Amino acid sequence: MNYQVGQLIVGKVYNVKPYALFMNFEGGATGLLHISEISDSFVRDIEKYGSIGDEIKVKVLSIDKENGFLRVSYKQVPPEEAYSSHTNQRKLPTVTEEEFLPLKEKLDEWINDAYSKIAKEEK
């Protein structure tokens, strides 16, 4: 087993429990993706994040070399590197800077309108 702590690897889910996804990795290693390592948000239903057969890119947190068992994290995978074949996979934001320009152009106008309304109310 040639895995290292901090390495990003893809595993395949072979068992789902309410508290973890159990995964197989290349070279015969197995591992556990604990529910606390799926998201920084509360995870009510682990099956929304993985099912048997899903492939998920994870980060190796620790290695039990005697048993070939890995403890892994999904939430520590950088968003641009994240991958999951599950339908609820983490999505990258699609908003571009150009989409914010119309808001920026209107900001001064909105601020002036707000000041005008306040001035009218004070009279």
What does this structure look like?
It is built from one helix and five strands, in the order βββββα. A five-stranded mixed beta barrel has the order 1-2-3-5-4. The mean pLDDT is 85. 17% of the residues are buried. It is 21% helix and 28% strand. The chain has one helix spanning 97-122; strands at residues 8-17, 20-24, 30-34, 55-64, 69-73. It is an alpha+beta fold. The longest helix has 26 residues, at 97-122. The chain has a domain at 8-73: Beta Barrel (OB fold (Dihydrolipoamide Acetyltransferase, E2P)), CATH 2.40.50.140.
Number of strands: 5
CATH architecture of the domain at 8-73: Beta Barrel
Ends apart, CA distance between termini: 77 Å
Q: For the largest sheet, list the strands in their spatial order.
A: 1-2-3-5-4
Within CATH, the superfamily of the domain at 8-73 carries the name: Nucleic acid-binding proteins
The biggest sheet, with number of strands, parallel, antiparallel or mixed sense and barrel status, is:
5 strands, mixed, barrel
CATH topology of the domain at 8-73: OB fold (Dihydrolipoamide Acetyltransferase, E2P)
Helix content: 10-25%
